[in-house]
């Protein structure tokens, strides 16, 4: 088993420096070189292009990089499963979540999990949908929760919740005082929205295209809270999840624009690599997720 060599190779591919790799893995630089040499001999290919000024991974090195990440994950998962007691839920669970889910929906589930499984160590990484899918694909997290779409054929995607979105504005906005607003009144408006790669931005783009809306301007902010604060200060419209705006609407900091004959709904999903489907902590998390939001089962 070339576990140590593969771990060395993956680290070197990511930091692109022999000295830093040796420091990270607490080994000598000649040991790093020997691991890479042994792998190149084993696979009969050059894994890196080297010169005094740069280190670049080769195309065959890229192939091995993806496979090595999988092999290391399988090995470490197997080692953890063997060390765990048969009927106990403990160890680490790394969860990736898009911003809306991670900041407003996931916390209540984390509370339940911590109460039910006190030995389970939870780690949450928050990013946009595109970033979370990438984290799942590279095994940086065990499971991801996303609000957008993914075409990654290597991953398994399952719906867990329906989410309603609303167009919101400051209380002083010209559309906020109207009882019913036709979609045509959204022409030539200024929008405050999330960055490209976000599921919320993707959905807003769909709404704009499908209704033939012209946009006066886009202000991009990679934070739901930042968007809300900007809207409260009178800077245009935004399309946000009910979970994001609920408290601000109740406290009358924001107003929902009441559209005539229009509603916006999307599906939130969990995504994981098939090799994770039998991992005990992942199975436990999915079970808790479906129990809390059973409507999409």
TrEMBL record:
Keyword set includes Transcription: yes
Similarity-based family: Belongs to the LysR transcriptional regulatory family.
Domain HTH lysR-type intervals: 1-60
Gene3D superfamilies linked: 3.40.190.290, Winged helix-like DNA-binding domain superfamily/Winged helix DNA-binding domain
Pfam family, one: LysR_substrate
Species: Peribacillus cavernae
Keyword flag Transcription regulation: yes
Keyword tags: DNA-binding, Transcription, Transcription regulation
InterPro entries from the UniProt entry: LysR_HTH_N (IPR000847), LysR_subst-bd (IPR005119), WH-like_DNA-bd_sf (IPR036388), WH_DNA-bd_sf (IPR036390)
Coiled-coil positions: none
MF GO annotations: DNA-binding transcription factor activity; transcription cis-regulatory region binding
Name this polypeptide is given: LysR family transcriptional regulator
SUPFAM superfamilies (UniProt xref): Periplasmic binding protein-like II (SSF53850), Winged helix' DNA-binding domain (SSF46785)
